[in-house]
Structure formats: C-alpha cells, structure tokens
Amino acid sequence: MTNYQSDLLRLMNDRGYIHQLTDADGLDRLAAKTIIPGYVGFDATATSLHVGNLVQIMLLRRLQQAGHKPIVVMGGGTTKVGDPSGKDEVRKLLDNEGINANIASIRSSFERFLTFGDGPTDAIMVNNADWLDSLKYIPFLRDVGRHFTINRMLTFDSVKLRLDREQPLTFLEFNYMILQAYDFLELSRQHACRLQLGGSDQWGNIVNGIELGRRIDSAELFGLTTPLITKADGSKMGKSVDGAIWLNEDRLSPYDYWQFWRNTDDRDVGKFMRLFTDIDLDEISRLEALQGAEINEAKKILADAATAMAHGSDAAANAATTAQKTFEQGQSGGDLPVLEVTADQISVLNALVTIGFCASKGEAKRMIAGGGARVDDEQIKEPGTMITMANTDIKISAGKKKHGLLRRAV
Fold first, then answer.
1. pTM confidence score
2. EC no. (predicted)?
C-alpha cells in the first residue's frame, strides 16, 4: 500500500478511488501543505444525474472532507458539443433553454453531497458556457488549437472506438477534447484550480488539460482518475434491467433508490460502502465479512446510508419501513407508487402500463408470460385478467423489485 502523507490521497486510496495519478508525489506534497481546488465536469444532458455519475460526485465529497475545495463544472458549453468518450453514436444536441433547465434541476443533487458557500473549502458550481460561449474561433485556433496534433488525437480511445467501428465522429465532437482541456486552463486562471478528477475514460482529456496549462501558463496541474466501477457480475455500475438509477426524486423514488442498493450483490457490499457511503472503514470490514442471511443486514445498512446521502435521512427511513412492511410483514408500505382507479375494474395490462412498470402493453404481456406479474402476491397467468377494485389497496408487482398500489379513487 502506498504511504501517502496527505489526508486527501490517504482517504482516496483507502476507499478505493485511485486508478491513475499524473504526479502522485507532487500532488501528495501539495495537498499536505495547502488547500487544493479540484474539479469534476458534468455535462447537462438530462434533468438528473444517475448512479453512474455518483463516484465522481463522491470524489468531490472526499475532496471537501479532506479539507480542500470542490468545483462542480456544469457543461453548459460542452453539452452543446457532446463528449464522444464511451459513446457509439452522435449525441442529440440540446438548445440553451434545455441545457439551462437541466443544470437547474441537477444542482439539487449536489446540494445533498456538498457544502456550498464562500469559504475556502466550500464548494462552488460554475458553468463552462461562461467562457466557451464567448470564444472567437480564429483566435482560439491560433492560441489553443496549435498545441494539439491530429496524430495524437487519433490515438485517444474515444476517437479510436468510433473509427474502428466505422461509426461517424463529427468534427463538432472532435473538438470536445480541446474544449475540455481549455476548461482546465480557465479554471486554473479564474479559481486557482490545480486538480481535475474523473473516470478512467477521461484520462486523455485530463492529460491534455494539464499539458495545455503547462505550455500556455507554465501552470503545475494534476490529474486523478478512478477505476471503472463494475458490479461483481461484470456489468457497469449505475445501470439496472429497468434503466438508469436516477438521483433526482422526480425521476426515481427514494424507495426504488433504496431498493437498488438493497439488491447489491453480496460480493459488492464492502466496495460500495467504501465508495458510496461515509461508513467507518473498520465497520465496513466487519459488515462485509458477514455470511449467509446476516449479509442482508449489511445490505440494508448500505441502502440506508446511500439513500440518506442522496435523499435525506427521513426518506431513507421511510423507504426502509416500506420495504419491511412489503416484504417481511406482507403489508403495504406508504412509499409505494399509487395508481388511483376510477372504474370498478382495470385490466392487468392497463394497470402495469399506467403505474409505470411497463412501457407498453406488449411489454406487460411479456412480463405476464414470464411469470413476473402479481396482484396481491398471486401470479397472473392470463394477459386478459381484470382486477376488480375494492375499498382496500391492491398490491401490484412486476418482477421482484417493482411494487405499487391500486387504490379506488374517492
């Protein structure tokens, strides 16, 4: 194990965040003696971030916990271009209004994880449109573009992937890596930012920014990337069979968020606790060593901690109570989604689609054919089944994880 002297790198190392460092010794020395402003960039392509972004948010949280200053960079400018990293096709372009609406919606997530303010270690949020939108094309090419060679840019994985698959890479997207490098230069100038953090797929972009700062301003900048976070089964962290695990409550209920963590593979419990919670490391070592049914208690602790961080302790407690009532006591918890039905009957197909468990009646039919649809815990075998409404709530389930209530409208 590496013997770092700074609280920052010790914390990052002990919790499993470090994959690559541009200058480990230099960053360690700097972090041990002064406050380092560090940033992560997030493009505003949706109204919410998701669990796939969570490790990057946690990097900023750890930065602040170690006494340094987090800078959240919202890509109001770069979102208009689109990051080709990890993408097989051109991303849909958003207009200014859509991008700004997404940024406003996303901010609420960061306020759960970071302390914002005007203090030396308080987090700030900036928008790279503030400097990218005002760039003049010819001066930018002369001052910045001359530091990038096409030869080297063609070697980056984000570019090679598209070209190897003979998929289009637009000139617009090709500029993304230059703009991201320029972000680091501007942040260094405006906010004395010395560190960029990101996923391993951003390594090339981070190195570009470091080199640009050195060549133009003789700035000493640093980069840190995290490993690709995968689940024990090899699948990518942040995805489920039902789609993205969103951080915003209007995209995914706290109950469903809690359930995502509760369903963690036994082998991932310790790793996810280190990465995504503030649980003490000694306690994590104890919990991840549990065997058999006891590991389920550790999963609940993980779910409680992760949900409290994203949605607050009350939401986490309510989700846990709902889960206990639904699964352990056979009752209906208060956090389950509710579909109010005005008629005396509703078809199972309509109920599954309207409550949001299936995207179409075709999908609902496949759910029923696969044995995954249940009403009051009884398996539904026929797609034409009608549900007769009563004065009490009726539980409807799709698979093992989606549960809701059908309620007679008053």
1. 0.79
2. 6.1.1.1
